[in-house]
Amino acid sequence: MTVTVRFAPSPTGRIHIGNARTALFNWLFAMNNKGRFIQRFDDTDIARSKQEFSDAILYDLHWLGIFPDATEYQSRRFEIYDAAVERLKAAGVVYACYETPEELDLRRKVRRTRGLPPVYGREALALSPEQIAEYQADGRRPHWRFLLPNFSSDPLQPERTEVHWNDLVRGEETVDLASLSDPVLVREDGTYLYTLPSVVDDIEMGVSHVIRGDDHVTNTGVQIALFQALAAEPPVFGHHNLLTTASGEGLSKRTGALSIESLRESGIEPMAVASLAVLVGTSENVAAVPTMGELAERFDAPATSKSAAKFDPDELFVLNRTLLHHLPFAEAQDRLIVLGVSDDKAEPFWLAVRGNLDRLADAVSWWRILREGPQEKPEFSDGDRDFLGQAFDLLPEEPWSGTIWKDWTGKVREATGRKGKALFMPLRLALTGLPSGPELADLLPLMGREGTMARRP
Ligand code: GLU
């Protein structure tokens, strides 16, 4: 059997790092099992779903390094769901209900005050044909519920009915179907809620493993019953913990907080996002993993903790610096060209500056310093100015060897008696205009003798 997974967001906003966790868990699981990854847009809520969000989600996935084998839209598949509902109606497990939201609300309150669980009491099953005719005459249209198989002969007498599955992440799981309301599958206006289309698609698309957030654990009990009602074998389920901010807040597509788009715009590398999104809240240490292949090797669904994974967005910057520090020139080259860093010095330049970057784009300011000199003229005391005069007089003629920085500063130390910070800081300021930065031993050969002399104060 080919492993087939899917990532199934509703396109109602941009995806955030928590959604990326779900997408990546599926992608890495597919990678490790030579499986297929389907991108499925759960866009049955026509009013809130937008094509622009679907497009943007695909863009974000590509940026992260996820390339789906197929892309599907639920909004284009209503006929398939209609056929499934007809089958369920024929089997007598879908029934029409006429309650308004206000009526349901009132009933829930009454049940609560009587100490009963606030589940739907299946009152619609007891409607007489006359009452139904009356509702219809009033212009009420039915919504349709799935009759959960939680009774032996009388649906009005539900009994504890356990659904079990062996969760890929959480191990043995149990949901009692008697603790749940019969889910609404179809709204009054004929549109679908998430529950049924998801199951129908998982069957039709041959989904073997459903990996999703643990906010869906209860749904899984219901959906396993639906798979069975449609005479299909349920897939394997895995529910991973959700990401929350350090203060314990959940993430929402609506607020745009920690969206993949905003992380990209702030210069975070995709593998920094992927490393944190996948490894936080697991028994693996969070580390900057440079490639998806290596991340796949570390990925192990059962090693995910069951409690919410708190994470610190600042950690992304730490991971980002580590990734850039080790990023080979071949991988940076094209992006550097776009930034205007592209002559025969680009490679030694990259190797010299990469260890000092917060963001790849920051390489530009070092490129500018190298080509144009300090961006702000440094101020020097008289003593430092004299020192620098002597130092520049001692700069060796070209050709320079690989040890030019050591050779030059050695001579300067001998001639001036200065050492340590008193020696190096004025030189660093004169050469770069900044008190810290890449190794001067690496920068000096890139400036050349002429470039260096041009920096003499
Ligand atoms: N559209 C659902 C969600 O975003 C999908 C859940 C699932 O993977 O089945 O939560």
Automatic annotation (TrEMBL):
Pfam families: Anticodon_2, tRNA-synt_1c. Keywords: Aminoacyl-tRNA synthetase, ATP-binding, Cytoplasm, Ligase, Nucleotide-binding, Protein biosynthesis. Residues 381-455 form the Aminoacyl-tRNA synthetase class I anticodon-binding domain. It catalyses: tRNA(Glu) + L-glutamate + ATP = L-glutamyl-tRNA(Glu) + AMP + diphosphate. PROSITE patterns: AA_TRNA_LIGASE_I. A motif ('KMSKS' region) lies at residues 250-254. InterPro entries: aa-tRNA-synth_I_cd-bd (IPR045462), aa-tRNA-synth_I_codon-bd_sub2 (IPR020751), aa-tRNA-synth_I_CS (IPR001412), aa_tRNA-synth_I_cd-bd_sf (IPR008925), Glu-tRNA-ligase_bac/mito (IPR004527), Glu/Gln-tRNA-synth (IPR000924), Glu/Gln-tRNA-synth_Ib_cat-dom (IPR020058), GluQ/Sye (IPR049940). ATP binds at K253. Residues 3-316 form the Glutamyl/glutaminyl-tRNA synthetase class Ib catalytic domain. It is found in: Cytoplasm. Monomer. This is Glutamate--tRNA ligase.
